[in-house]
Amino acid sequence: MLEFYQETYHSQILLPNGELVERPFEIRKNPITGRTCRITYTRMEECEPGAAALPEPPPFANRRKDCPFCRPQFTDKTPQLSPELGEQGRLVRGTSILFPNLFPYGQYSAVSLFDDKHFVEIGSAHLSSYIDCFLNCRDYLLRVLAHDPAAVYMAITQNHLPSAGGSLIHPHLQVHADRIPTNYQRFVKNRAMAHRRRSGRHLFSEYLAMEKQDGRRWIGATGPWQWLAAFAPEGFFEIWGILPGATSLREASDNQWSALARGVLNAQNFYRSLGRNGHNLGLLLLEDGTDDLELRLILRVRSNSAPWVRSDFTGFEVMLGDMATFSAPEAVAENARGFWQ
Q: Does the pLDDT of residue 334 top 90, yes or no?
């Protein structure tokens, strides 16, 4: 069985008034990765600048004429797919338009736009636009596989606003496919394979079953997608969506992609209620014919995109490798459940 390790420790300090107090912190170990994180509950007492309410839109939220993703400059400022991947140069599905990333991170790197809105506040996108965008990414990845069957390491990601790494605020997803895995793809593939060989069970399905039995971090479902707060988060307010039994994008139906989009918007609206506007999204896909790694989407809040807001990463994360958050995953789940009803 997977190990859900957590231990509470205390640090003794003298307050400025001379009072001796014990400050609790918790160390948890991620059952999937084995990485530890620290939850410093007393940081909840801090008043974090820029997070008391949803910040104002970025100052360039109305500068459509400077955005290469907006019309009418879109056709002149974005590249086109090779004929093998898109006969018309770009893939269009509903409101979504997909084209190559001008600055590729791998052999097959593309961008899928939501629609022609230049700025969409977190949680306010139309469900249909997210569905179109996900399906456009799916269609592109299937074309990549047909063209290059060795490009099996795939992902769909999102960087919402500059604080999450977004270089343009026009809403879009990134889609990646390559013959060479990233470090995380390689690691999770090996973990899932080893767990299946050892136990005969899928890694994420077993994790999900244990979490649903516990119940404290369980949030809800959208169709077959199951949502929960991460036991040992590696980012703030981390939420997972798991599609049990599906180990390939070929196995996910249009309705299941639609259910995924609903869950993503639920999570975004929860983040919006916390006064947060930046986030990352990631869905890893392994298309090498194995069936060990089920589909799992991860969402994490990032620092707000607003003046004088501190980064969510400190020297502890960058130099020591442990994520240090301050919210209990059980509280995250409890507060998020209402957005799934």
A: yes
> Among residues 189, 125, 191, which one has the least CA distance to residue 158?
125
> How many whole angstroms separate alpha carbon 208 and alpha carbon 46?
33
pLDDT in tens, 169-223: 999 999 999 999 999 999 999 999 999 999 999 999 999 999 999 999 999 999 9
- Alpha carbons 262 and 340: distance in angstroms, whole number: 9
Cβ within 8 Å of residue 228, ≥6 positions away? 208, 211, 212, 217, 218, 219, 239, 240, 242, 333
Cis peptide before 58 (omega within 30 of 0): no
Give, to the nearest 10 degrees, the angle between helix 183-199 and helix 203-214.
Answer: 80
Which residue is listed with tokens 């997608």?
A: 225
The first and second tokens of residue 200, run together, are 């005969």
Residues in the chain: 341
Q: Which amino acid is at 80?
A: Q
Please, are residues 335 and 267 in contact by the beta-carbon 8 Å criterion?
A: no
Residue 336 and residue 267 in contact, taking contact as beta carbons nearer than 8 Å: yes
- E strands, 261-306, where? 278-286, 295-302
Q: Determine the angle formed by the axes of helices 254-273 and 127-147, rounding to 10 degrees.
A: 130
Domains annotated on the chain, with CATH:
62-309+327-341 (3.30.428.10)
Check the CA dihedral 58-67-99-262 and report its sign: positive
Q: What is the DSSP string of 167-182?
A: S--S-EEEEEEESS--
Under a CB-based contact definition with an 8 Å cutoff, are residues 30 and 37 in contact? yes
Q: Which two tokens stand for residue 266?
A: 């639920």
**pTM for this model (two decimals):** 0.95
Q: Are the beta carbons of 223 and 255 closer than 8 angstroms? A: yes
Alpha-carbon distance of 113 to 71, in angstroms, equals 12
Q: Hey, which residues does 227 pair with through a beta bridge?
A: 220, 241
CA 217/CA 219 separation, integer angstroms: 6
Distances (CA, A) of 164 to 92, 122, 237, 306: 26, 12, 14, 12
